[in-house]
Amino acid sequence: MTEQQKASVGPLPEGLELPLPRTDLTPAEEREVRKQELAAAFRLFARFGFSEGVAGHITARDPEHPEWFWVNPFGMHFSQIKVSDLILVDHAGRVVEGRRPVNQAAFCIHSEVHRARPDVVAAAHTHSLHGKAFSSLGIPLDPITQDACAFYEDHGIYSDYRGVVNDTEEGKRIGVALADKKAVILQNHGLLTVGASVAEAAWYFVTMERSCQAQLLAMSAGTPTLIDPDTARAVREQTTGPLPGWFQFRPLWDQITSLEPDLFD
Predict the structure, then answer these.
(1) Is the overall model pTM greater than 0.90, yes or no?
(2) For residues 9 and 125, which has the higher predicted lDDT (pLDDT)?
(3) Which of 214, 194, 204, 59 has the alpha carbon at shortest distance from 133?
């Protein structure tokens, strides 16, 4: 945790501590954590209205076979996905574990994103309303709010839309546009975010979608005032990263696991 991030936490009386992700897990235990966060993220995305027919996917790299990833089964609504429904796909798009096929676009995009970014555990992409509306503008998010600063100088734009992704070459080009950043706007398509955990990637998607909505609203009302670059960078450093991203997801995790405990089945 950076000094800027530590400044977000008030004094901790003796005996109190913040929840933190466990770092002593076996590969099998880590796999279960990733699958549980994946199922929870899908349930939350359903509640946020991010589903659009059969489009949309979140993936999590398998801890024992890092070239494979867990993903939602093709054609299942986000609101119904349980841990036991998730499928495991290998580097060639073959289903290694699970009872349903994979979305071809999910494999073509996510396999190449995971290949290009070995530091990334998870990637999230859906056709959310404000994300796809904003993507049609072909412009980056501006630092007009504290939340939008999370993406200041830390997201790319993929401007070569060629229809439904059905080959890995386009996935490779998306990976190039993402580069070393936490997100990429897929022009005329939507948003894609990544993280060192499912929780981090899912949180970035939620807050990026809302930041797109905020900028669209602000632009419709007038000319938004930008936060200055130094302040925007400082806010980004304070509010993002593997640990802050994981922690920002905790309230959503607590909410959905309390309301829909069947996701663990």
Answers:
(1) yes
(2) 125
(3) 214
